[in-house]
User: What shape does this take?
Amino acid sequence: MSRWLNVIAAVPVLALAVTAVTAQAEPMKVGVFDPEVLWKQTEVGKKYNLDLSAARDRLQGQIDKKTDELEALRAKLRQQQASLSEDRVTDMKKEIIGKQTELDRLNEDATKEMKYQLGEVQGRFQEMLVRTLETFGREKAFTMILNRGVVDYSASSVDISQDLIARFNEMHKVQAAGAAPKKPADAPKEPPKN
Assistant: This one.
């Protein structure tokens, strides 16, 4: 009788061992991707880069205009300084200091605005990338997908960047210029419970 108890007790252990061996027998599927490639080659990444470039060019145009005004004022002072009264020279120097202060503030504001915009678009892109990685990983039965930036070596055969670009573009269509981003529909609200 004790022999049958040993056999009955061994069945669950044997089942666990078979499960462990089966789990180990399934090969791990690992992919590696380059986030910079996705940033540069996805349609959303390209649009974000164009938007950032346009913002940078707009701000740089304002800075260039202010710089030209300042340089013109300095040149005028150099040319006319000998023929101007001391009070007029002092006024022009104050005006130059004021223009320099405006230029410094404009540079600071432009830097802050660009950092903010870059942070915003990178944050949105990162969220989209995470959703894409999760979806793609599940669909293609990956065990693990790694960022190339944290991998010291990977064979080119595990690089999935191009496949991710295609999937990313499918999942995240670029909005037409001026169109508001689509928001998910709000869940219906339940009536208050008494």
About this structure: The two ends are 62 Å apart (CA to CA). The longest helix spans residues 86-139. Strands lie at 30-33, 144-147. The mean pLDDT is 82.
